[in-house]
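Minutes, project check-in
Item: structure for the 237-residue chain
Input as provided by the requester:
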Amino acid sequence: MAFLEVKDLHVSYGAIKAIQGISLKVEKGEVVTLIGSNGAGKTTTMNTLAGLIKPAAGQILFKEENIAGHDAPDVVSRGITLSPEGRQVFPKLSVWENLDMGAYSVKDPAVRKRGFEQAFSLFPILKERSSQPAGTLSGGEQQMLAVARALMSDPEVLMLDEPSLGLAPIIIQDIFNLIKKINGMGTTILLVEQNAKMALGISDRGYVLETGRIVHVGTGEELMKSDEVKNAYLGGI
């Protein structure tokens, strides 16, 4: 049994079938990437796993328990958090207050304290900016804040939805280095990313989504060598 497993998941928006029976696995300690074009269903998948969308059918098994349909606070309390697409920081709250919001489910003061220490260790710039309103940060700093906020509840699985979106190339490299570092600290990562080459380069395994269905599965290396995947998502290189 996989650490996190999705079985025959279906998600609909009214008459529109956004996810059509996908199945995937994430083993403990892995980095697994979902790639696909816009509208393929990647963000819908992540939001459903996070408890923000209720599936029409299927199972989401986390440590062998079906959590499909559970609400977001329950999913977080079980150890799965999401850093959403577009960062979605609270612009008028300070950096410190944004991080504190990420720890809303944490009852143990020691865990909360450790969360702040880890956030400021991984992202020293956030410590420097801790009293600034989050809306005054650069795009890269806001992305770091979004990731740090998702880590505040000490999750076992961190889901990252488009962490490099809209960032300068040098900042994108920093973000991917941090993802590797977070994974190296023992956090399992499920990643949705338009920058398929960089994402697959750090991934144990990957899944390719097209119009709500999984069409390719393989290790990061296998998918990078696939002619079909190269032509569709890696610019043919």
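Outcome recorded: Residues 88-146 form one domain.
No further action items on this chain.
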